[in-house]
Every structure is written in C-alpha cells, then in structure tokens.
DNA sequence: AATATTTATGTAAACGATTACATAAACCAA
DNA sequence: TTGGTTTATGTAATCGTTTACATAAATATT
C-alpha cells in the first residue's frame, strides 16, 4: 500500500504538493500536476481515509441505525436516505442493531469515537436521557420512531390520525366489534396509534372492550398467535386493525386456518404498506407511510445540522395515506 | 470532545500511561490506574477511533456489500455474518449497492482506503479482473454469488444440484411440461441452476423446449410478468421452477389472475426459502439455502484471511434442502 | 552492601494525511 | 535597477492515538 510520501518521492515533489493536486485545494503548475498524477497512477495510490479524516475531523460519512434489516419497511427508508446522502457527497453505513441495546451501544460508541459525522436513528432503544446526551456530542436525527419532548429533530407521520382514519374506514364498512393488535414497546407511535383507534371508536359511539386489544412485536408470528386468541372471543370480532402489515398477514393466516373468509368474516387492516402487502392474497388494506420521503427528509435534516445550516430542533410530520385493498373490501380482481 | 492528552493532564500522568490503562496493554500500578479511570470518567473520554485505527493500521471492522437490502434473502445471511463478527470482536457495516456499479465502486474505494480490514461481497458487479486485483490489496470473500476460477475464497451452495432436485421433484409429481424462470445476469448460480434444470429433464427423457424458459431479475414483478407470457403457450406448462421465491410468488399471482389453481393447474417451485415463502397462501415449495450458515462461514473465512491464519483460497459449498409445501403438492392445512 | 532484575512511568517517534507558514523564483511597475 | 506582487513549492506542525525505547525506582539476589 503506497502512501502520499511514496507518491511525492516518485514525482520528485513534496507531500504538500501531492496533497494539493489530489484535493485541488490550491494552484499547482500544470507540469508538476501531471508528474503527480502519473505517479499516483503508477503506484495505484489511494489516500488513506483514516489519516485524512483524522486530520480533517470530518469523514463525510453518516451511520444509519436500523433495528432490523429483515423488516422491508426500513429498506425503502434507507433508499431515501442514501439518495440524499450521495447527492451531498456523503456515504452511509447501515448498522443493524437487532433491537439489541448492547449492539446499539457498540455502534453509538463508534459514532462518539468520530467514525462518522452524525447518525440517523430508527427505533432507538436508548433512554431519552441517553439520546439527549448523545445529541449534544454529535448530530443525530430520529426517523419514524421517536421519543417526544426531547431536543432532537425527528421525522415521522401523524400516527394518531393514521390509525383514526384506518379504524374509521372499518367502522364505515359497518363493523362494530373491531379488535386492535398493537405493539408492546416504549415507542410513541404505538401509543398514538392506540389513541387514534380509541378516538374513532368513541366518535362512532362504540364501547371500548379491553379484551379486544392485544400486543405483539410487529412480526408475522405474533400477529398469527394473537389473532388465534382474539378469534376465540364470543362474539368474535369482525374486523381487526394491526399496527404492522406483517401482523396483518399473520392475522389473515390465522383466520384462514379457522376457515374464515377475509374480508367477509374478518376484515383486516395493516400498517406500513410494505411491498409485500400488495403481493399477498388477499391484498392488504393498509396505511401507507411515505417511507422514501421519510428517509430523504431525515437525511436532509441531518446534513443541515452537520453543516451547521440549521440551529435548533425541528419536528417534521409527513403525509400518510389509507390504501384500501381486498382485505377489508371484496373486490373483483386486484393486483 | 476531550482527547487522551486532556485525560493525561487531569490525571497527572503521561499519555502513554493513559493509553496503557485503556488498553490494558501493560502493567500500571493500581493507584495510577485509578487516577486515570476517574479522569476518563470525569471528562467522559472516548478514544478517537480514527487516531487509533490510523496508528494500528487495523480497524476491526469489515464491510458487507449487499446488492439490495430490500431482499429478505440477504437479511438472514447478514445475521450470520454479524454473529460471527461480534464473537471475534469485529463490527460490520452494511453497504447497499443497489446493484449499481457506481455505488459499489464508492464503497470499494472506501475499502481500499483502509476504512475496514476486509469485506464480504454478495453479488458483486465487478469484473473478475477487478475482483482479483482487489483481493490482492485487501482481504475479501465472496458469498452466495461468485465468479468461478478466481483466486478468491467463496461460500455458496451447489446450485446445479439444488435445481436438479427441485425439478426432479416436479417430474416425480407427473409433470411433463415444466417451465423455467431464471435470472438474466452474469452470475454463475444462474447458469448452474439452468444446468440442473436441464439435467433433470434429460434424465427423465423430457425434451427441452426453449419457449418454456424466460429470464427475470428475481423480483415479484418480473415473475408475474413472465408467467403471464408462459401461460399463453399451448399447451401451457403444468409446472414452473423459479430461481427465486419472489418470482415464484409473482408466478402464482399470475396464475390466480387466470383463474388457475395452484398446485392443481400449475405447480410452482421457488428458491431461497425466504421467511415470506411460508407465510404465503399457498405456502411455497422451495429450495432452502442455509443463509445463516452461509453468513457465518463467510465471516469466519474472512477473519482467517485478515488474521493471516489461512493461506490460499478456499471454496465452501454448504448443504441445501428441498422444502415441499402447498404450491406443488395439495396438503391439508399447513402453516 | 553491591549488583542484577523487575516494575512503573515517561519521552518521542510513528501512522498518513492536510495546511499554516516560509521561501524562492518569476513577473511587474516605477 | 529596485522594490513589491504574485505564483509555485517546500518545511514542519498537527490531528489523536499506540508503542519502542529510555530511565528511574523498587525489589530481589548474592
């Protein structure tokens, strides 16, 4: 591996000149510039990023912490993040935390150790205190899941309103006994979605039945298992609102096993509009989050903080959309 | 941000001593060690990784280049990679190339610039020559997709045999007209799977019909579109072997639209055994790759190269398994 | 008690870049 | 010709670590 010294020696110039040619940071005579460039080519020289970043105390790199790369929901967000990042000359590196606080801590440690200029956190497991402290040390932005009341910029949707609209849709179809499959975690979105569910029920004058509510972990398996239980209720629910598409799919498979028809015997509504929700049969009615845009926005906000263009913290709420498909309304042939 | 110098000053010792305490690299008297540790705590000091890595010319970090994080197939592999990595004290960073040669080049550049100690490449778009050159500069391992004949370690499965077994299964069910939905790319796996398909046909004395073969890009959409075309053949195929589960699901949706029953009118076999293939209705018959193990193996091989434990290149082929589900054989209730 | 060994710590040179400052050469104006 | 600019390049400090080497103090050995 050749260094800038080797190049300098070969080109017969000083390291400073080589650096100038590489970075175009100041004038160099065309003749020497050419000598340097041939030396660079001959030695196949690449500047060592560690040295450069150390000196510049900037890496033009940001970390993106995702709880679970297997969740297709995050894939689309990451696309948005990446696109904006590369437009601005930043590289992104994904860190899969698996929702494991220990793993997350490892990556946060790297972040604090200046391996990157900042980070986008999705569904962080850190406490509000830890997050605030981190944000004082290094630029961060919360995307999708966030803790409220912290002095940290975040980008998300209006979860309460989204859930309200979804449940209102079910009510509009004539359902009276509507189950709720939520998420058992500390995130605000979980709370807000429950609130939206409750508001829709209340508005329609439907009594809230705690037995109709259960909590999973967004996964197919949890949706399946929970629905199995809910179907044992008497009278059983005729509709269910799930806070993830994966759980909605699990719920549908559960209903199928009981020989129930979806949507005739059980209407199912999901959340996220993952790619798969339109591939499934029946296609899933769901709330579409603008995942790509969420990613873009988060990255833009982060760059603004890193480059000091924006002071203070901001809250961004992007638009969502209810997408009605076969799992709540019988349709002809949809794909 | 405090540095090792600040800590040294505060503790009233030299930077060398601080470094020794932090790394436990040599004996320090308990009294001074304690002074150092309190200073570290008081200043909330974290060693700067750039400085450390620069000095050590080691980062204990590896890059994992994935073509598409939205593809759940890779998620499980990454889990394996991560587990082995963290067992050995390495961190991994995911780089989503989106199968875009330009993006891939950017990450490879970072790799060459010593941002990481090595990399695992899945489905690299680089030429054999570029790959070979890269492997001379820095440790790399190819995982799943690989180019043959290169002096680069790789980990994968026996694709020819896997395809052969899958098609043989279809033949065993009595099918005579079996379509093939492959992948249009330069990867060896695509070629080998086609070869396995051909061998099974030949062995059964079934004539190969080029009209029955078409090529997509592993996606749901391509499977859907291609199957639409194949179903127009007369006589139409009664079975299809797809080289990805996503395409298999697309094919099934296509058949459904034509009011064909799966598996009665069309038997469908996929490849990969992604999580979703068991969630779908009908559940997909597929070839299961040991994704987690592939990831583990790749990471182990990479560490061996990085740490100089193993010389030369190796080829690892892990076991696969044909998983028979509803999309080829009518079953009672399966989940 | 004199010497050899061990232990604890400090000094300073790396690692590979960037960049403020210095300097020499070339050019220009009067 | 002289002094003042401008231009091109080099020297050396710096970023934050680790670590080889040096040295002083403490301990062991005879």
CATH superfamily (homologous) name of the largest domain in chain A: Response regulator
| Oligomeric state of the chains present here | homodimer
What characteristic shape of chain A results from the CA principal axes?
elongated
CATH architecture of the largest domain in chain A: 3-Layer(aba) Sandwich
Enumerate how many helices of chain A there are, as a single number. 13
Query: Roughly what percent helix of chain A?
Result: 40-55%
Could you name the ranges of chain A where pLDDT drops below 50 across 5 or more consecutive residues? none
**SSE order of chain A, one letter for each helix or strand:** HHHHEHEHEHEEHEHEHEHEHEHEE
Q: What is the CATH class of the largest domain in chain A?
A: Alpha Beta
Number of strands of chain A: 12
Rg over CA atoms of chain A: 26 Å
Interface with most residues: A-B, 51 and 51 residues
The name CATH uses for the topology of the largest domain in chain A is Rossmann fold
Q: What composes the largest sheet of chain A? A: 6 strands, parallel
How many domain regions of chain A? 3
Straight-line N-to-C gap of chain A: 54 Å
Q: What topology, given as strand order, has the largest sheet of chain A?
A: 2-1-3-4-5-11
The SS-based structural class of chain A is alpha/beta
Task: Describe, in plain words, how this protein is organized in 3D.
The structure is a homodimer of 335-residue chains. With 335 residues, chain A is of the alpha/beta class. Chain A has 3 domains: 4-47, lambda repressor-like DNA-binding domains (434 Repressor (Amino-terminal Domain), Orthogonal Bundle), CATH 1.10.260; 59-157 and 291-319, Response regulator (Rossmann fold, 3-Layer(aba) Sandwich), CATH 3.40.50; 159-289, Rossmann fold (3-Layer(aba) Sandwich). In chain A, 45% of the residues lie in helices and 16% in strands. Chain A has helices at 4-11, 15-23, 30-43, 49-56, 72-87, 101-112, 128-137, 159-172, 188-203, 220-230, 245-257, 276-279, 291-306; strands at 61-66, 91-96, 118-122, 140-143, 154-157, 178-183, 213-216, 239-242, 267-269, 286-288, 315-318, 321-323. In chain A, strands 2-1-3-4-5-11 form a 6-stranded parallel sheet, sandwiched between helices. Chain A has a 4-stranded parallel sheet with strand order 7-6-8-9, sandwiched between helices. Chain A has a two-stranded antiparallel ribbon with strand order 10-12. In chain A, helix 2 (15-23) packs across helix 3 (30-43). The model of chain A has no long low-confidence stretch (mean pLDDT 93). Chains A and B meet through helix 4, helix 5, strand 2, helix 6 and helix 11 of A and helix 4, helix 5, strand 2, helix 6 and helix 11 of B.
